[in-house]
Amino acid sequence: MGRAFADPERSDPGEPVSNESKTVAVLGAGTMGSGIATVLARAGHRTILFDIDEVNLTRGIATVTSFFDNSVKKGKLTETQAAAAKGALEGTTDLTALAPCEVVVEAILEDLALKKETFGRLDGIVSESTLFHTNTSTLSVTGIASSSRIPGRVVGTHYCNPAPLMKLVEVADGRHTAAWAHKATIDFLSSLGKTTVVTKDRPGFIVNRFLIPWENSCIQALEAGVATKEAIDEAIPGALGHPMGPFRLLDIVGLDIHQQVATRLYEQLRDPRFFPPPMVARMVAAGDLGRKTGRGFYDYDDTRLFGS
């Protein structure tokens, strides 16, 4: 899960600097997957969005399309540019359809066994020169790569959320990541207009190592009655300069995603600061996951996961 302090209504995604077009797959049509697919299609790459669930896939493609349509309304893309970006996107539920891909970006559930199984299956489908990128931020890149017969091609690429608007991508090599794969990854991300920072293969990398305990502290303050969510969301930007408060950010990310990431980090680090507060479990149980469900800390008429 990538997170950063960005206001989707105010951020300028800028123009990607594209090199020659590639065929790129994105595994997982959720918040991160659809966001990454948006970045790739906007940069002119043939983008194949994969999901095992047809409903999720349809929703993900609609999210990407909505982003480009809204970009035209806001004057950030021309009709021609939006049409080209939408034309670069396709969807599939068939993993074998990814055979021509030169880069595969994995953004599926934060489940080590599932990621390993997926990468292992891809070994028999794509070329030996295909780059494998994992968007994990809580699991070991080395562990994920261990399922591939070519672990040297596996690189951690953690996009900050929302991916179409945030420039930062954390890059983490696994223990056996090859130098060529690292360089090719940096070059590819630069061609998307992204800024890269290199981090070690450690739980949380840089961003979530600091962000998750901070968000938990904000939730605990709300639970303790220190202030209302509105007051906290106003105080943080006003005092610390963040473009949005923690509860607006959590609603964009999704409370279910926050719970998963926080729990994974706690399991590995055994630091109580990472354990999600009880309020998170109650909200997830109630289905109040944030903007994508129309209700989280706030209520929403517009359930789009990111703006443009």
CATH class of the largest domain: Alpha Beta
CATH homologous superfamily grouping of the largest domain: NAD(P)-binding Rossmann-like Domain
CATH fold node name of the largest domain: Rossmann fold
**Helicity level:** 40-55%
Tally of separate helices: 11
**Succession of helices and strands:** EHEHHEEHEHEEHEHHHHH
Strand order across the largest sheet: 3-2-1-4-5-6-7-8
Number of strands: 8
| Gap between N and C termini | 20 Å
Task: Report on this structure.
The protein is built from eleven helices and eight strands. With 308 residues, it is an alpha/beta fold. It has two domains: 23-199, Rossmann fold (3-Layer(aba) Sandwich), CATH 3.40.50; 207-293, N-(1-d-carboxylethyl)-l-norvaline Dehydrogenase, domain 2, CATH 1.10.1040.10. An eight-stranded mixed β-sheet has the order 3-2-1-4-5-6-7-8. β6 (154-159) and β7 (168-173) form a beta hairpin. The model is unreliable at 2-18 (pLDDT under 50).
Keywords:
308 residues; 43% helix; alpha/beta; 11 helices; 8-stranded mixed sheet; single chain; N-(1-d-carboxylethyl)-l-norvaline Dehydrogenase, domain 2; Rossmann fold; 8 strands
Q: Helix and strand layout, with pairings?
A:
Blueprint: E1 23-27, H1 31-42, E2 46-50, H2 54-73, H3 79-87, E3 89-92, E4 103-106, H4 112-123, E5 131-134, H5 141-145, E6 154-159, E7 168-173, H6 179-191, E8 195-199, H7 207-223, H8 229-240, H9 246-253, H10 255-269, H11 278-286
Parallel strand pairs: 1-2, 1-4, 2-3, 4-5, 5-6, 7-8
Antiparallel strand pairs: 6-7
